[in-house]
Design brief:
Number of strands: 11
Low-confidence stretches: none
Number of helices: 11
Oligomer: single chain
Strand content: 15-25%
Radius of gyration: 30 Å
Shape: elongated
Helix content: 40-55%
Distance between the termini: 56 Å
Largest sheet: 9 strands, mixed
């Protein structure tokens, strides 16, 4: 039994005529008829009822044809795997990214993407963690950059780098005069600017610092961004937090407002996630390599004093 024979019986089932099936398979009619007869002899059953015009499958032949369709589809997928690997850095890529990662990582990797994978067309989509995971499982995106364990069996994770949470404090605050921030000092702060619920950046921070929503707080901001909150802080209004990579983009004056946490320092692991059935492994390696080369090398490992949240 071979794949060619399965293709022949599939064609005969489709056209119900030996001559038309042979033309579709680009072989002579005697060749197609002989190969199908050999398959029937090997299996010990008749796949087609030749006494009927047009030719029809026998009951057991119908089951054989159904199984042949599955086998041929799986064989085609094997060719697809090979083709995807050969064309790994061309074609298209849909990459989902957290809003707290995108502004600080993407500008770093853009030049490398243009240089190393110039034929790859990439669509970036900003999504929260839950949205990234859902889009991956539904096949709506190919990869996602998130900052937590996906917790879904169908997904595969590749840890890229580790990033600390940093405090951003106004010059008028007592925190400005301190070298480090202690989580206990944040409880009860009048203006503590945090992203909406559902952002893992917020969820990880509030859990680490034991922060709770304060209904008596005078000012709140729905659907805010880190950049908006940073501007509030620069005007002397409250405290917020930024990821470590964001510090790299600040000028000297703004860096003066950054404070690290006292030990242990809360840290998130940034992860590249794909579906486990994603076959473009060379592309995953290429994107992984570009990202890890674009961040400070010290961030590629968990450093002393950091606490993974």
């Amino acid at each position: 039994m071979n794949l060619q024979q399965l293709e022949y019986i599939q064609a005969l089932d489709k056209y119900r005529h030996f001559g038309k099936a042979a033309d579709a398979c680009k072989v002579t009619q005697p060749t197609l008829s002989t190969m199908i007869q050999k398959l029937e002899d090997e299996l010990g059953v008749k796949i087609f009822d030749r006494s009927h015009q047009p030719i029809v499958p026998t009951p057991v032949g119908r089951r054989i044809l159904d199984q042949a369709g599955v086998i041929l589809m799986q064989a085609a997928q094997m060719h697809q795997v090979i083709r995807e690997e050969a064309e790994a850095v061309t074609g298209t890529l849909r990459l989902a990214v957290l809003p707290t990662i995108a502004p600080y990582l993407l500008p770093r990797i853009m030049p490398l993407l243009e240089q190393e994978v110039p034929e790859l067309k990439i669509t970036f989509v900003e999504m929260k963690t839950s949205e990234c995971i859902e889009a991956l499982t539904l096949g709506e995106v190919d990869m996602a950059l998130i900052a937590s364990r996906p917790g879904v069996e169908q997904l595969t994770e590749h840890i890229l780098y580790y990033e600390e949470f940093m405090g951003y404090v106004p010059r008028s605050s007592e925190l400005f005069g301190q070298e480090h921030i202690r989580s206990s000092e944040l409880v009860g702060k009048r203006h503590l600017w945090l992203l909406d619920e559902g952002h893992c950046f917020r969820d990880q921070l509030t859990k680490f610092c034991h922060l709770k929503y304060d209904p008596s707080q005078q000012l709140n901001y729905s659907r805010g961004s880190l950049e908006t909150f940073m501007h509030f802080v620069e005007q002397g209004q409250g405290v917020t937090f930024i990821p470590e990579l964001a510090v790299e983009q600040l000028d000297a004056a703004r860096r003066e407002l950054v404070r690290s946490f006292a030990l242990p320092r809360p840290t998130r692991g940034v992860t590249l996630v794909t579906h486990r059935e994603f076959v473009r492994h060379r592309l995953v390696s290429a994107i992984e390599g570009i990202i890890t080369r674009s961040v400070p090398q010290a961030m590629l490992r968990l450093r002393s004093g950091q606490d993974l949240v």
